[in-house]
Design goal:
The chain has 9 helices and 9 strands. The strands form 3 sheets. A 5-stranded mixed sheet has the order 2-1-3-4-5. A two-stranded antiparallel ribbon has the order 6-7.
Length: about 220
């Protein structure tokens, strides 16, 4: 069994099935190893990976790199994109990888025996050469590695809610130490407070256009 098939078998066992998105995640991890000149899956914490969506794609990336949320070497950014940025914390080099825009349309050509589109993606993504399947680009992180990784044992206490904050994620506002929710960056609120408001899905008219982030 070659290296890719070994990784796919591990991902399949973890996820209880194998799907095209896991294949993409594994292929991205393998390409990151090549571009960064690293041995992956790693046996330490040298590589930091930021995936731009969750689900089976992230499982494929994790298996190929041995980066995991529980080890603080995998971060999930909810951008809804099957893309990942791989950061060598020793050299500071970072590379972002995403599927080639035409990969989906080309996959069936590499799997003529596939009975349907899904099977075509599953097999085609395993067989396509890197330059047709994936796009990689060197990138510069907007935050420093020191800020992303933080320091062991770093703790603070929010002066509003009293909850502990780890990994130097506190904010300083007018001399007060605040957690992000108390500083206005919350993703939820207490149910009693929320009941006083009427919440409805935003329509297309409500949404303001926002520029795409630079990669």
């Amino acid at each position: 069994m070659d290296r890719m098939q070994h990784l796919l078998a591990e991902s399949s066992a973890l996820h209880r099935h194998l799907c095209p998105r896991q294949v993409l995640g594994v292929r991205m991890g393998m390409l990151a190893a090549e571009r960064l000149g690293m041995e992956l899956p790693q046996d330490d914490k040298r590589l930091l990976t930021l995936v731009e969506t969750d689900g089976c794609f992230a499982d494929g990336v994790a298996v190929a790199t041995n980066c995991w949320v529980g080890r603080r070497t995998l971060r999930v950014l909810d951008y809804g994109k099957m893309a990942a940025t791989f950061v060598d914390t020793l050299t500071g080099q970072a590379i972002r990888i995403h599927p080639h825009p035409r990969a989906r349309g080309m996959a069936r050509g590499f799997a003529p025996e596939a009975g349907d589109r899904w099977q075509g993606y599953l097999l085609g993504y395993q067989r396509m050469p890197n330059h047709l399947l994936l796009v990689d680009q060197r990138v510069i992180l907007q935050q420093s590695l020191e800020r992303l990784l933080s320091r062991p044992g770093a703790r603070a206490v929010c002066q509003v809610c009293g909850e502990e904050i780890i990994n130097e994620r506190e904010l300083l506002h007018e001399g007060s130490v605040l957690c992000r929710p108390c500083a206005g960056e919350s993703y939820c609120w207490p149910a009693a407070a929320g009941m006083a408001q009427t919440v409805r899905p935003a329509s297309s008219q409500d949404r303001l256009p926002t520029p795409s982030p630079a990669h």
